[in-house]
Design goal:
By secondary structure, this protein is α+β, with helices and mostly antiparallel strands. The chain has one domain. Helix content is 13%, strand content 30%. The protein has two helices and eight strands. The strands form two sheets. A six-stranded antiparallel beta sheet has the order 1-2-6-5-4-7. A two-stranded antiparallel sheet has the order 3-8. 15% of the residues are buried.
Length: 164
């Protein structure tokens, strides 16, 4: 028997053995893939509020001192802001107390107000070019408050928050 005939006979025998083995059955299934995206809002800009930034407040003045700060935010696409707060207040008014930086500081009352009609903005997502919502904060120090304090730098840090 030649080498070729032996190789063919071996291949035929192997094929006969393989054909006599039970066939392996295949099975198919499905995997469910899911993800949940949260509806959230995040502050993107919370600039400081400085009264009479260039010159300071003139204590001989008779008009209230005012300053503004525009807070900006983004929300998940289609999500609107449900609550905005300044110093824990969601009413549109926050009353604060500025404290001087000197060793025996004076304090000065002030008020921040804002429109509570900020929920008309529907989020466009968080991409850098996504539209932002904004809330204008207006601060007021009455002449009666600033006319009786010593020359100093007065400050207070106030928390600002937004939720959907």
């Amino acid at each position: 028997m030649s080498t070729l005939e032996r190789a063919l006979a071996g291949a035929a025998a192997a094929a006969a053995v393989l054909c006599s083995l039970p066939a392996l059955a295949a099975d198919n299934g499905n995997v469910t893939v899911s993800a949940t995206v949260q509806g959230i809002c995040k502050l993107t800009l919370t600039p400081g509020m400085t009264f009479a930034a260039a010159t300071g407040i003139d204590p001989t003045g008779t008009a209230d001192a005012t300053a503004t700060s525009t807070v900006k935010y983004r929300c998940t696409k289609g999500t609107s802001a449900g609550s905005f707060s300044v110093g824990g207040s969601t009413t549109g008014t926050y009353n604060g107390l500025l404290t001087g930086a000197s060793l025996s500081p004076d304090t000065m009352a002030y008020q921040i107000t804002w429109s509570t009609n900020y929920s008309g903005f529907s989020g466009a997502g968080f991409a850098p070019a996504a539209a932002e919502g904004s809330v204008l904060l207006t601060g007021t120090i009455t002449a009666a408050a600033y006319s009786v304090v010593k020359a100093d730098t007065y400050s207070q840090t106030v928390a600002v928050s937004i939720t959907p």
